[in-house]
Amino acid sequence: MHINNQIFLWDQATVKLLDVRQIEMVQGEILQKYKIPASIFLLSVHGSAQVQLDQAEFSFTGFQILHSGKGATLNIVPTSKKFVYYIIYYRAWIHEEDPFQIQYCFSPDAPILLYNKIQMMHQKWNRQEERLHVKSLFYQFIDQVLKELHRQETEVKQTSVAVQVITYIQEYYAEPITLDSLAEVFNFSAYHLSSLFKEYTGMSPIDYLIRFRLERATELLMTTEASVGEIAGSVGYKDVYYFSRIFKKRKGVSPAHFRTRELQAHKVAESPSNFPTSSIFEHIVQQYINNDNHYHNTEKGELHMFKMTKSQTTAALLLCGSLLLGACSSGTGTAAKEQSTRNGTVNQTVLEESSKTRIVSTPKGDVEVPAEPKRVAADQYMGHLLKLGIVPIGARTFMLDEGWMEKADIPKETIEKIEDLGDFPLNLEKLTMLDPDLIIGSIDENIEQYEKIGTTVFLPYWEGLTTAGPLDKFRGVSKIFGKEKEAEEWITEYEQKVAEAKSKLAGVIKEGETVSVVSFSEKAVYVLAAKGGNYGSSTIYNMLQLPPTESAKNMAEGFESISLEVLPEYLGDYVFVYNGDADATNKAMESNIWKGIPAVKNGKVYLYGDNYHDEFVMEDPFSLELQLDTIVNLLLDTTK
Prior knowledge:
With about 650 residues, the chain is of the alpha/beta class. The protein has 27 helices and 23 strands.
């Protein structure tokens, strides 16, 4: 431990004292699985006890000093008739990041100096007018601790925050845990905590949580007759469907099929108690100065707070609500470096592969991206990606069930490989878990969040209230991946199909006649513009070049919202009606205003679309191909 670094941190930190307590325990009392609510210094002053902090154990006799950050689990079992200790709860942070997340325990060379300081702090703590004096004593206490640490440099090691996260997950895996909740417990940003954990273990905290939960579930499937739903709930999944989906994704088969198959084959699954040291990563070794320490994995069960045979007041004091204001701090130890060394060969390979990059221009400036990204996540552009041969690892919920997919014969197996990342903005926890090497975001306000997780390209789907032309959209996506050639090949083929379609439609719409595109909603009628519109208007106006009305030419925002009463003023000789809202469309078409429109009387109205779940919602290559066929067939059918 570098004392100069510690002195600098303490000098720069904002410090808040939360509580100072003296605790007396007698033999037979147990402090069990106490989740530390703030950073602490614990100084034992009398008697002996076995103390466990996360996975490390210490034998306390006489004066011992212990430090830990928020979120660690503390157990104390007195081994003498009386065991007395003082405990200081505090919070210290620098620029919202807590750099004091270290655990250590040692026997001080000058214990009386520490004892005098902490005893005086305790005596004065409850007198409000003495709080400033208490804080000055706390700094003196810190100064003495740092001097002790400096003298014992070779014997004190700091514990990686990753080890504490692992212990927390093993304890609370059945409870709702998210990356944000872990970050709150350990007082880190979600991104920073995930980065530290991944550096140490090679995976994200949520990926570790999922693997640990599934190993627990595997054991329960093999050793109990509990239903799949009961097992899902016991390992932290309230949604049995989601549990089955993620189990199948990781194990290759559903939980029920796995149980049947394995039981029939008389195979016994590995015990999850060995999981963290074998299934996920190599055994974690941490060293402390206490020669009586030993390291082992412990079975974790339900959370129990205090089980004591004496006064429950002690528990109440330690659970004092004010302590919940505390926070912890950060730090990584030598074990992380050892892990990095063990993974050296693999990491070097990854670095070599990722060294090939490209520069992509975006509205937010140039971005350096992998030349051949393998793990792409996106909140838009599903059809564009698939047409380029890119299957994303994660996408927005809406993209996984777009209306064109079945008509375009997209294999169901392809879509099942893609993780559902929710709506805008994408679920940051799941996104972090997927570890994407490239993220495509289409909404400006979400980009900063995505950039904290990985390389992000901002490619706006909408520009103001208008949208870029569909072919330009496809070109924009292709440039991100260096697949401009593939995009232009498809565009050439598509434009040839458009030319053939225009030839078929020659003479259907006479010279001087015009075309309108409208869509009805409960509160308004939308007339689509000749440029920048949606719902097939780009295919009608820009691709097939059907003639728009003057009003459609002069809409700056891609559409105009009007009332039904003025609709006749906007309509041409041919009217395409996008049936997004079937109820609103039917209601409008039953009105006298609608029935009096010339195009309606002449039978030149074309109803298309299916309740906002069809190929006219998006403008990807698959949708454009389907739109072209639909519009051409509608017009040709009227000439028979």
